[in-house]
Amino acid sequence: MTRSRLTRLGWGTLGMAVLSMAASLSTGNNLLYVLFGLVVGSMVVAWVGGKLNLRGVAAEVRQPDQVFRGESFKLGLKVVNKGRLPGIGLRVRGAWIARLGPGQEQEARFPFMFRHRGVNAVEGLELESLFPFGFFRHSKALQGLTGTALPKIREVRAAAEITADASLSGRPRPKKGRGDELFGIRVYDQSDDSRLINWKLSAKQDRTLVNEFCAPGESRVTIRLENIGSGEAAEARVAEAASAFKWYVDTGAEVRLVTPEGAVDYGKGLLHLDKALRFMALLGEGRTPRPSRIQPHEDRSAPDSAALRRVMFFGTAVVYGSLFLIDEIGFRPLLALAPALPLGWLLHEKKLWRPGRLLWDPASALVLLYILTLDWRYSGVAVANVHLVLYLLVNRALNAVRAEDLRQWFLILFLGFFLASGLTLTPWYFLAFLLYLAFAGLWLCLASGLEFQERRSWFPAMGVGLVATLAAAGMLFVLSPRRDSFRHINPFTAMGIDKLQPKASTVAGFGEGVSLGWYGELKRSSSRMMRVRPLFAAGPGDPPPLYVRGAAFDVFNGRRWSKGKVGFTYRYGTSKYPAVSGRAWTPRHGELLEFPGKGEPAPQALEFIYYPVNLTVLFTVGAVNAVAMPSGAVYFDHTDSAYLGSPYTRGLRYNLVPREGPPGFGEGIVDYEKLLQERFLGVPASDGRVAALAARLTAGARTDEEKARLVETHLRRAYSYSTYSASKDKTLEDFLFKDRKGNCEFFATAAAVLLRHAGVPTRLVTGFLASEWNEYGKFYDVRQGQAHAWVEAYAEGRWITLEPTPASGFSAARDALLSRLQRMMNALELRWYRHVIGYDSYSQRDTFYRLSQALTRERVTGWLKAAVQPLGAGLFLAGLVFLAARLRHSFKSRPTTLYGRAARLLENAGMTREPSMTPMEHALKAQAGRPELDPVVELVELHYRERYSGQALDAGQAGRAEELLRTLEQVSGRRK
Amino acid sequence: MSVKTETDSRIGRLIDNINSIFVGPPEVVKFTVATLLSRGHLLIEDVPGIGKTLLGVVLARSIEASFHRIQFTNDLLPSDILGLSVFDQKAGSFDFKPGPIFSNVVLADEINRSTPKTQSALLEAMNDMQVSIDGKTHALPPLFMVIATQNPVEYHGTYPLPEAQLDRFLTRVRIGYPAPGAEKRILREKDLNERIQALKPALTVAEVLGLQKQAEEVRVDEALLDYVVKIAEATRAGRSVKLGLSPRGALAVVRAARSMALMAGREYCVPDDVKAMAVPVISHRLILDTSLYGVAKIAEVEETVASIVRGVPSPD
Questions:
Q1: Are B197 and B119 found together in one domain?
Q2: For residue A646, how many other CB atoms are within 10 A of its CB?
Q3: What value does the mean pLDDT take over residues A523-548?
Q4: Across residues A704-732, what is the average pLDDT?
Q5: Which of A129, A776, A799, B99 has the highest CB neighbour number within 10 Å of its CB?
């Protein structure tokens, strides 16, 4: 059973998860959701991965042959991976295993002592791992480890010390002749060696005397061990018996042991002693395993801090780079601060200079003071936070040395990335995210003890973990609930990390005026504006993009379009009304608000649903007959733009009834021609270039419409579309004659100005180009980023719509590849804004709706039917590949050498070979066991010749070998 | 193929020749012949009266070599072994009278009974293959083999050979008491001396020298060298071994294995050769750890070596 405990790092990460969850829920910022997904995903992967890591790893005990109770020795622990997944970063008492592949084994040694005699169960050993990310300490108790201890032997110095029951049988008779002990003195005999003569005594006694030596005789000893009992007394008795046994064996006697549980017969020598000791070990309580616990050991080895620091610098670079993605932070100050990083690196690596605490502490105090008091007020909370993080980063980069410092640094990097996630929108964030993921994964693995040098062994596993984290993060991103209602009061909004709020300022373009160059910013927003739902059955396929008209402008001063408050008179039926402050209020008939114009109402009505925005513009499509709204008042002005009486800050819903006829409300305005000439022909003062261009382009055109189309086509062909205007200072002349590229406002402005020069009344129209068709809900999803500007020209008595902006891929650039690339980038960018940044609760509901729709029965069966063929083919192929792999494996493992095949045959016949047996010994043993296996002996001889003589077998010998193999095959009953 | 039949038969004849008179375990004769072919020296450690001298004599006669027996006693002097210079009054110069060591086969009986000084005289001569006396060096014969005997260590009054000297002997064998049937055969046979005199040689000295040269050229595969190295490492790592096999010992194993291969009629070594010679070559070079169990007896050393070899996986 694997136990998992959170480490300190794990607790910290849990805190980070809570922080990012709170931030993302309260602000609805999707990149914070991404971060949240990352943090939680990595914890889940750490938990699951860690458990899988330890699965299948088991251990066995290897002890030396003779271990005595109470004796300290080195216990060998063989760690084996029986599973199919490698075990990475394993730690067991005293040993560190970087990678244990499936089937591999490794041995660890540590000092141990058996507490009991006999069978000891080794307890308290645990296999630990911090892999993959060090959030959890997974530990698995190793069980089933047993070892045997022999009874403790006491050194006995003399027979008198023995307390065990030892009885000698038979008298030891000394062997006279050679020996150590002096037996006695006797009279000299002819055969005696003259060296034995005891001269002193002989001189005294006046006859020749010799010393007689003898060796102690062999005796037989019986040691009795009655009534073993239990507990310490029993141990003492057994230990005494063992000590006595050894003493007698050392003296050379034949010793026997008699116990109530059995006996060890007479024997001499060390082997006999060994046998007896093992027997005594298992007496009484020794048979049942008794626990020997190992001391708990705090294994805290320091991680590879040099590599950690290096990786830390990489991470700092990543987070620092991601700070560049924040718009509010100036590009230049960031760049200016950048050298701190390489400087920190150099100072660390070369150990040149470490600024002391005396320098840092006052500096930190000053900076903190500045941030808390002044910076916060000047730059806003968000930027102040970023400044703080920046300072901390620089501080750490120049200072951090110890392990705790490094952890702190990691935390600061996370906070920095957190801020970056909250304050940016660009798709480049994804790259930064991937880099951060890689950095964090690498750092966490290194911090949990893995060595950078051994990276080959654990990089693949880490890679799998990172991919799994990415997948988990993605799933969490899609599934985390999006609530719109928490946004109002919370510290995160105060911090300014809620980038998604449709602030009134960003859609001010539909209010009073629009400046050149403003559109660039708007394009990056993906907040939803409205939905437009056709209330009629659409044709097959996706409907084309819809031009949703907002406000039109008539006055252009060279930099800015605006609208004048023009007084006019308008009529409904026979009544005439003045437009007070330029507003012509529409009459209400029940639900309908009518607009003037020629033509009957058309059946293709559209439903408009607005999200809450602080605007009053009423958006229309084509020619409007009426608007069906339960309440509220609507007016139009001289530019044919419609407005509500008050802003729809709670959203709005209405149906638009179109008209069969030309668009515009001019029908209802008195003296409309005069209005046109007055309002829609004004051109700003400029050098003559624009006028000359206009004249040139429209030369040869006979009607106004022709002129309009000529200008439109020219702009589309000769100029390129670029998403961002470089700066807000670009003028129309810059666009027309210098850069020749810009966004839709430039195109529209250019068209309008040129046509006005050519005498055609023209106006700029702003609105949305609805291109996102939701096929499930059957509506257009209109987002702020789809804001668009185009042109309306009055030709031959009616307003026509012109689109001077080329489709974003259509450019004058000669390099087709570049334009394709640009198109691809634009499409990707669009997807980023739509699916990631703009993934709000509506999107979520949509996704679930889509899923549930997709998983309807008909669809699923439809899919299955469609999938049967390719699936079947796939399965068949997979089966072939699998079979081939198995065959190849068995083919590969089939031995090809002569001896290999012979050995395999012998094995099949039941004759296994022990590793220390030579092939010939094995063959002879097989022959002895089963005489029909006789050919194997000659076969081994031939094998020897082939293997050891340095020459290959000649044809005759090879043939003979094959013959023998065939005979052997028949005889041994070959099994596959 | 031709090598096989020739060498095989020649060596086979030698072995049969020896076995016709000497009654003992067949491995003893095999190891003796292997030692001869390896240019090595043999150490027989056993009780008296089991045919050690007989073995030496029969071996010498079978290869038509000169034989001399030196009985080592406490008072044996180096000159008794090496020879001495005698002053010849008539010629007025010193005359070198060679000692018994100047023979092809020398039996040094009870070598552990003489003083270390005498022992080293013999061993140095064995090592240098020459004798220096009074400034003049005299080479020993090209075919030179010493068969030394030693009484087992327990007996009093001996100077046991230290480990460094024991190393000079290629193999150590024990003859042991004969099996009952064999003992009966010994008792039945008559006229031992006459039979020895009547023994016809199987090989000449020159042929033996040739065989020694052939033995040096036997091919030993890399895998077998690895095997020997593994065995050596295993002896050093064993828990009960205080001093393991030295590289000189490993070399000795390889030399002996080569001779074994030649005796089997092959020009190449196989694992069985190594395994066969392992115990006799290694067991006298080890010192066992006696701290727990006291002094180890010879049989235990051999058993230990055998179990160590059993623990080393053999090459295919």
A1: yes
A2: 9
A3: 79
A4: 80
A5: A129
- Among residues B213, B244, B275, which one ends one of the domains? B213
Distance from CA of A244 to the nearest CA of B (A): 13
| Distance between A917 CA and the closest CA of chain B, angstroms | 6
Q: Into how many domains does chain B fold?
A: 2
Question: Do B272 and B126 fall into the same domain?
Answer: no
**Residue B1 confidence (pLDDT):** 38
Quick one: which of A954, A941, A898 has its CA closest to B271?
A941
User: Residues B113-144: pLDDT tens digits?
Assistant: 888 889 989 988 988 898 888 788 899 999 99
Of A86, A83, A82, A79, the residue nearest A131 (C-alpha): A86
| Same domain assignment for residues B184 and B294 | no
Q: How far is B194 from chain A (nearest CA, A)?
A: 29
Q: Which residue among B156, B239, B270 places its CB closest to the CB of A65?
A: B239
Write down the H helix ranges in A294-380: 305-323, 331-337, 340-350, 357-370, 376-379
Residues B246 and B163 in one domain: no
Same domain? For B254 and B156 the reply is: no
Residue A218's contacts (CB-CB under 8 Å, 6 or more residues apart) are A172, A252, A253, A254
The span from the CA of A523 to the CA of A337, in Å, is 31
Q: What is the Cα–Cα distance from B108 to B148, expressed in whole angstroms?
A: 5
What distance in Å separates the CA atoms of residue A521 and residue A341, rounded to the nearest whole number? 32
Of B213, B243, B261, the last residue of a domain is B213
DSSP, residue by residue, A460-510: HHHHHHHHHHHHHHHHHHHHS---STT-SS-HHHHHT--TT---GGGGGGG
Q: What angle do CA A206, A209, A212 make, to 5 degrees?
A: 165
Task: Characterize the bridge pairing of strands A209-215 and A175-177.
Answer: antiparallel
B164 and B223 co-located in one domain:
no
Interchain CB distance below 8 Å, B314 and A919: yes
SS (H, E, C) A383-446: HHHHHHHHHHHHHHHHHCCCHHHHHHHHHHHHHHHHHHHHHCCCCHHHHHHHHHHHHHHHHHHH
d(CA A110, CA A112): 6
Contacts 24+ apart (CB under 8 A), A376-384: A379/A328, A380/A328, A380/A496, A381/A494, A381/A495, A381/A496, A382/A328, A382/A419, A382/A422, A382/A423, A382/A495, A382/A496, A382/A497, A383/A328, A383/A329, A383/A496
ipTM: 0.84
Query: pLDDT, tens digit, for every residue of A141-153?
Result: 888 788 888 888 8
Which segment of A163-177, A206-220, A633-647, A758-772 scores lowest on mean pLDDT?
A163-177
Indicate yes or no: CB of B221 within 8 angstroms of CB of A950: yes
Which chain A residue has the Cα nearest residue B237? A64
Residue A676 sits at the vertex; the CA angle it makes with A671 and A679, to the nearest 5 degrees, is 115
Give the domain CATH number at B286: 1.10.8.80
Q: Specify whether B130 is located in the same domain as B116.
A: yes
The confidence score (pLDDT) of residue A217 equals: 59
Q: Report d(CA A306, CA A82) in Å as an integer.
A: 34
- Which residue of chain B has the CA closest to A917? B314
Print the domain residue range for B228: 217-316
B154, B155, B219: residue with CB nearest A948: B219
pLDDT at A171: 55
The rounded distance, in Å, linking the Cα atoms of B27 and B277 is 10
Q: Which residues contact A96 (CB under 8 A, 6 or more apart)?
A: A90, A301, A449
Same structural domain for residues B182 and B269?
no
- Say yes or no to pLDDT of A537 above 50: yes
Of A547, A653, A549, the residue nearest A608 (C-alpha): A653
* CATH code, domain with B102: 3.40.50.300
- Whether the predicted pLDDT of A595 surpasses 80: yes
Task: Give the whole-angstrom CA distance, residue A536 versus residue A610.
Answer: 20
